[in-house]
Design goal:
Layout (H helix, E strand, L loop, with lengths): L1 E4 L5 H13 L3 E6 L4 E6 L7 H5 L4 E5 L19 E3 L2 E3 L5 E5 L6 H14 L3 E3 L17 H14 L2 E5 L6 H7 L2 E4 L7 H9 L4 E4 L6 H13 L5 E5 L17 H8 L4 E3 L1 H5 L2 H13 L4 E5 L17 H17 L5
Parallel strand pairs: 7-8, 7-14, 8-9, 9-10, 10-11, 11-12, 12-13, 13-14
Antiparallel strand pairs: 1-3, 1-4, 2-3, 5-6
Bound molecules: phosphoenolpyruvate (PEP) and manganese (II) ion.
The site of manganese (II) ion (MN) has 5 residues, from loops.
Length: 337
Amino acid sequence: MIIVMKPNSGEVEVNHVIEKVREVGCKEILLEGTNRKVIAVIGDKRDIPPEYWDVIPGVEKAVPILTPYKIASREAKKTDTEIKINDQVLGGKKIGVIAGPCAVESQDQINFIAEGVKKAGAIALRGGAFKPRTSPYSFQGLREEGLEYLARAREATGLAIVTEILSPEHIELVSSYVDVLQIGTRNMSNFLLLQAVGECKKPVILKRGMSATLDEFLLAGEYILSHGNPNVILCERGIRTFETHTRFTLSLSTVPALKRLTHLPVIVDPSHGTGVRDLVNPMSKGSIAVGADGLILEVHQDPEKSYVDGPQALTIEDFESLMSEARAVAQAVGREI
Ligand code: PEP
Ligand code: MN
């Protein structure tokens, strides 16, 4: 932390700040400039917010030097984190594609899609059993029945299962059926849920809140990490902007920016990020080109009949073409699918 003193602050104020610095167990270096004094605080005290210093008489502002996310930051770990999802790895050279319907609708539906996406090269099957719907009158998911169908689809195909978790009370139930827990955009700031998945050791896909800054997103990841779960995958899924031609605005510059700030794997969800089937393929290839470690995509056997998010769902044939085109892009950037 760097504490910048007001131009008119005198020795009394400076000494008082130094006293406070020592009181919290840090050391100080006083730099006397021509117009003002600056105090460099030596010691990692990220739990003390800049506001703690800002209110001290004579202080103009406190400027943090270290990122507020201790465990998630690149400073803490230089090498990319690789996360095991059953027999697959996400975050290494191979780009992991997770695919499946928005919502589990029936055993036949989920098995059919699971087989299709597995054949095309997906490493895991997604499917919502507890759906966070904007309207309370929309389909809310098959709940435990949906989890059972997902578990049977895993038995049939060997694919790892990804599903969304809505509440800390569901952790025991949901994690008894699935391999990866997903925290959706609407729950990125549900701190009790973040803590609860932090205490469980299953890999977690954390989606960016639709109005969250990168710092807020990384701090949400930090909640999970600091509660003991190192298996955090960050997912860019689009943010709310004034633009209406897509469902959300898929902010792809987030990917290289996050890769610089954190060692955690970063995946992209072009299905929710665009909401438009025809845009999912180009934005998926774009995501790979800018360094994403994986994709999460909605695929439906008959999008017209999909209970949820039909307009953005790929057919199995669309998914097959996307996978073969994406392979070429992956190769061009030194990755593989
Ligand atoms: C989902 O993946 O099914 C979902 C609801 O995504 P998001 O939380 O990004 O809207
Ligand atoms: Mn969806």
